Amino acid sequence: MATAPAAGTASSKQKLMHKLSKSAGQAKVGIIKSVKNMQNHIERKDSTHSQDNGKGGVQ
User: Does residue 53 sit in helix, strand or coil?
Assistant: First the structure.
């Protein structure tokens, strides 16, 4: 009978890990999206500033 509770805790651990990895995946997607948005923003800034000072954007 000693194996039954061990198996139970293993499966609940697995469920917890799955939950964590799922939320981590969603967080990762959010981070990637925000980084891409920042890159787009910086690129836009660069293109507008490059005409002004010829140094290619943000100082």
Answer: helix
Name every residue whose Cβ is closer than 8 Å to that of residue 43 and which is 6 or more positions away in sequence. Answer: none
Alpha-carbon distance values, 49 to 21, 35, 39, 40, 57 (Å) = 41, 21, 15, 14, 5
Largest CA distance in the chain: 77
Q: Whole-angstrom Cα distance, residue 53 to residue 59?
A: 10
Quick one: pLDDT at residue 1? 46
Task: Give the amino acid at 57.
Answer: G
pTM across the whole model: 0.40
